[in-house]
Sigma-70 family RNA polymerase sigma factor
Amino acid sequence: MTPPDDPTAPTRTDSELLVEFIDHRYEPAFAEVVRRHGGMVLAVCRSVLGNTPDAEDAAQAVFLTLAQKAGHSSVRKHLVGWLHRVAWYVAARGAKARAIRRRHEEEATRMRNEILASHEEPLRLDALHAALNRLSEKYRVPLILHHLEGRSQAETAALLGCSVDAIAVRLHRARDMLRDRLGRLDRRGAVASAAVLAGAWGSAASAEVTPAFVATTSHAASAALAGELASAAAVSGQTLALTRGAINMLYWAKTKAVATALAIVLTVGGVVGTMLHANEAVAAAPTAITGVITKLQDGQITLRRRTGEVTVAIDKATVIKVDDAVATADALKVGMSTAAFVEGDKPATEVRAYSPKAPPAPPPPPAPPKVVTGLVSQVTAASIVIQPQIGPAITVAFDGTTRVKVNDRLAAAPELAVGMSVGVFYADDKPATEIRAYSRGVLTPP
C-alpha cells in the first residue's frame, strides 16, 4: 500500500516516516530512516566490534528493534538519542558474545579496542561512545547530530527546534561535560584535550551504509513489524539474538524506571515500608518456573510441575533458547524440560528448553549358547574335535575360563581324552563356556 504523499521526501521528519511505516507498512519510509541514521549506528557498532561482519549484524539488530518499538511516541520523539543508546548496548552485547564464542581474550580485546593515531595519547572510540551515552538527552543529541551525523549547527538547531546560538552553547557545554566524563572513565583520571577529542570525532563520524544494507534491513523491518522476523531470510541468527536481547533490555529499563519513580513518590509521602514492598513487587528479578511442556498454544505454554500444571504466556519479545541455542517458538515441543522466567502476569522474558533425551537402549539379550554332543575324536591344548552322531566333525576351542567337568566333577582340560562322550556349550568363534565329559559310554544329555 502506497500513501498518497511521498513518505521519503526530505521535508518529512523521522517521526512522520516511522508513522508511515507503522500505519502503512511502507518499506521506503523505513529505508529513509536507515539512510539518515544508519551511518551513525554503524559507526557506533564498529567502535566496539571493529570493521567486521559482527558490526553490521549489530547495526541491523538496532533497526529491527526500532521497527518493533517505533509505535511508541517517546521513541519517535527522541529517535537519535534512542538509536545511539540501543546501538551502544547491542554492540557491547555482541562483543561479549563474540569473546565467549572465540574463547580468546587477546583477540577479542584487539578487535574491540580500535584506537586512533594522534600526536597525543590515543583515545579509544568505545570509551568515547561510553562517555557520550552517559550525557543527558539535552546535550547528547546535539553532539550526535553535529559530530557523528555531520549536520551543521543550523540543521541541528532546526531538527531540535532551537536557535543556532542555543545549539552552539549546548555543543560547547556538552563537549566540556564529555571531556570530564572521559577523564572519569580513564583509569589515570586524565582529561582528553580538545585536539584529541577533535580527532576522535573525526574517526567516530558516520560510516557509509550500502544500498544493500538499507534494502535488507528495511525488508527485515517489515517482517519484524508483522511478527515474522524469525523467518526473514536476510536476518542471521546472531542479528536475531541481538534484537531479542535489545528488546529485553528495553523492557527491563522501563520496569526499572517505573520502580524508581514509584519509590520517589512513596518516599515523598513518607511511606517507607510501603515503598520497599512496592519496589520489590515492580522490580523483583523474574521467577524461574521449571517443568515439562505438556501443551503448546498460540502465545502460551503449559508446564507440568510436581505441584500441578502452570500456564506461561510468551510473546515476540520472549528470548527462546532450545538446547542452549537461540530459536523460535516453533522449536518448542511437548515433552521438553523447560525453565521459563516470568514476572507476575507478564509474558516470559526468557524460555530455556531442552530436548528430551531418549533412554539408552537396553543391551540385546545374550544369545543362548550352542550345544554340541558327540564323541571326542581329537584333543589339543586349546581345542577338541567332536564327532556328532550325524554330520561332519566340529572343532570347539577352549581356554582358561572354560569350565570343565569330567563325570560330573570339576576337572582340568588335560583330563579330556579321545573317546569320551561330551556336551560342549559355546558361542560362534568363541571358546567354550563349559565342557561336560564322560568316560567311555553313552552320553548323558546335558
About this structure: The mean pLDDT is 76. The chain has three domains: 14-236, 285-356, 370-438. DSSP finds 14 helices and 14 strands in the chain.
